[in-house]
Amino acid sequence: MKSSRNLIIAGIVLVAAGVLLCGGTFAYLGFDMSRLSTADLVTNTYEVDEDFKDIKLTADAEDVILISSDEGNCRVECTEPAKSPHDVKVENGILTVASPRLNLTFWDMAFIPHKMETRIYLPKREYERLSVESDKGRIDIPEDFTFEDIGIDSDIGDIICMASVKGDIRINTDVGKVSLKDLTCTNLSVKGDTGKIELDGVVASGRFDIETDVGAISFKGCDANEIHAGTATGNIEGTLLTDKTFITRNHTGKVEVPDSSGGGRCELSTDTGNIRIEVTGKGEA
C-alpha cells in the first residue's frame, strides 16, 4: 500500500510539473499563439554574380544545405522572416551568407517550430575554405564538392558531410549527430558534447581526433595514420582498413581489438561502453 501511495504521489507531482511548464511557456509568449506561427516566413532568392573562392555561412535557426548547380551563377535561396532578410554578399573573394539575428531564447528553441532553410546552389565543384557557424539547424554538405579546408561550429543540429577535403576538417558541436561519409582529408577533428559520431569510408592521411561526452563513435571502413577517439559514455565500434597499435582504456564494458602489430597508433577510450574494432586489411592509410 505504501509503494502504491508513493507512485500516486509521484504521478501527481509530474502532472503538476507539466501544467506549470506549459503555463509558464504560454505566459512567456504573452498567451499570444501567433508567436508559434511561421506564417511570416517567405522564400527569397539572392543571385550571386561575383566570383569567390571561400564560403562563410552564419546561421541562426535554420537548416543549411549546399547543392550542386549546373547553372553558371551561384544563387542562395532563403526561407526567412519577411522583415528580417539574410545578408548575402561577396567581398574579397568570400561569399558571406549571414542570417538575421533573431535573439532566440531557450523557450524559442524548444517550443517554436521554426522552419527556416538556406539553400546555397554552387556552380563549381572545388572551393577553398568552407566555414559554417550555426545556432540551431541541420548542416548538409554533399559529395559533389571538394574544399581545401572545412570548419563547422554548431550548437544544436545534425551535421552531414560527404565532401572531400584536401586539408583539414574541424567540427565542433554541442548537441547533434555527426555523420561523415566517403571522403578523404589530411586531418579530421570532431569534438562533441552529446551525440553519436559516425564515420563511413573516411580516410585521412594524417590523424583522427574524435571526442564526445555522451554518444557512441563508429567506424566503417575508415583509416588514418594515427587515431585518437574517446567518449565518456558510449561504445566505440567498427572496422579499420590497416593494422594499428591499439591502446585502449575503459572502466565498464568489453574490449575486443586485434593484437598490436606495429601499425600506427590507435588510442581508444570510454568510461562506460564497449570497444570493438576489427581490421579488414583492405586499405592503406
Summary, kept brief:
By secondary structure, the chain is mostly beta strands. It has helices spanning 2-28, 106-111, and strands at 41-48, 54-68, 74-81, 87-91, 94-98, 116-122, 126-136, 139-141, 146-156, 159-161, 164-165, 168-175, 178-185, 187-194, 197-214, 217-233, 236-240, 244-252, 255-256, 264-272, 275-279.
Number of domains: 3
Count of DSSP-assigned helices: 2
Mean pLDDT: 86
Major sheet attributes: 9 strands, parallel, barrel
Order of helices and strands: HEEEEEHEEEEEEEEEEEEEEEE
Spatial gap, N to C terminus: 64 Å
Structural class by secondary-structure content: mainly beta
Task: Give me the count of strands.
Answer: 21
Range of helix content: 10-25%
- Spatial shape: elongated
Low-confidence stretches: 6-11, 21-37
Biggest sheet: strand arrangement:
2-7-9-12-14-15-13-10-8
What percent strand? over 45%
Question: Would you write up a description of this structure?
Answer:
This protein has helices at residues 2-28, 106-111; strands at residues 41-48, 54-68, 74-81, 87-91, 94-98, 116-122, 126-136, 139-141, 146-156, 159-161, 164-165, 168-175, 178-185, 187-194, 197-214, 217-233, 236-240, 244-252, 255-256, 264-272, 275-279. The chain has a 9-stranded parallel beta barrel. The protein has 3 domains: 2-31; 37-132, 3 Solenoid (Pectate Lyase C-like), CATH 2.160.20.120; 167-285, no CATH class. It is elongated, with a radius of gyration of 23 Å. The chain has 285 residues and is mainly beta. It has 2 helices and 21 strands. A hairpin with a 2-residue loop joins β4 (87-91) and β5 (94-98).
